[in-house]
Amino acid sequence: MKGGPIDPLVCPMSYTVSIVGGKWQWVILWLLYNEKVQRYGELKKRLSTISHKMLSQQLNSLEFEQLIHREEYPQIPPRVEYSLTEKGETLIPILKLMAMWGGQNGSQAHIE
User: Fold this and answer.
1) Three-state SS sequence of 10-38
2) Is 111 helix (H, G, I), strand (E, B) or coil?
3) What does pTM read for this prediction?
4) CA nearest 36: which of 75, 69, 2, 6?
5) 59: Cβ contacts below 8 Å, ≥ 6 apart
6) 33, 43, 11, 36: which is closest to 91 by C-alpha?
7) What are the pLDDT tens digits along the chain (112 aa)?
8) In what order do the strands lie in the sheet with 79-84?
9) Measured torsion, CA atoms of residues 53, 59, 65, 71, in degrees rounded to the nearest 10
10) All structural domains of the chain
11) Residue 86: which residues within 8 A CB-CB, separation 6 or more?
C-alpha cells in the first residue's frame, strides 16, 4: 500500500481509526467491557481527568457508531446507563491486546 493518500473507505486500518479515534473512546469501551453497564456518573468518576463535555462527546460518538447502547430511564433524577453493543463487543479482542501490550510496555518509561 505504497504511494498516495490513504482512503478510510478502502484502508481497513484507517477505517477503524476513523470510527474509534482518540484515547478516551478506547478507555470507555474497556470500562464497559469490564463493568458491563455503567452510568454516566460512574464513567466520569473512573475517568477523573476527562471533562464533562469531552465525555459526552465521546459517548455520543460511540453511540452514533453503534458501539455502545444508551439506555435512558424516565425517572427523577434521570438515569442513563451505557453498555457495549454486539458491534462494540467485536472490538474486545483488540482491547485485550492493547491492554496486554500496555501491561508489558507501560512501565518502561523513557527518562532522559
Assistant:
1) CCHHHHHHHHCCCHHHHHHHHHHHHHCEE
2) coil
3) 0.82
4) 69
5) 28, 40, 43, 68, 70, 82
6) 33
7) 466 666 656 688 888 888 888 789 999 999 999 999 999 999 999 999 999 999 999 999 999 999 999 999 988 888 899 999 999 999 999 999 998 988 888 766 554 4
8) 37-39, 79-84, 68-73
9) -130
10) 18-98 (1.10.10.10)
11) none
Among the listed residues 47, 45, 13, the one whose alpha carbon sits nearest the alpha carbon of residue 29: 47
Query: Which amino acid type is present at position 110?
Result: H
For residue 16 the three cell numbers come to 477503524
Instruction: Quickly list H helices, the chain.
Output: 12-19, 23-35, 40-46, 52-64, 86-89, 92-105
Pairing of strands 79-84, 37-39: antiparallel
Contacts of 87 (CB under 8 A, 6+ apart): 65, 66, 67
In this structure, what are the phi and psi dihedrals at residue 82, rounded to the nearest 5 degrees?
-120, 145
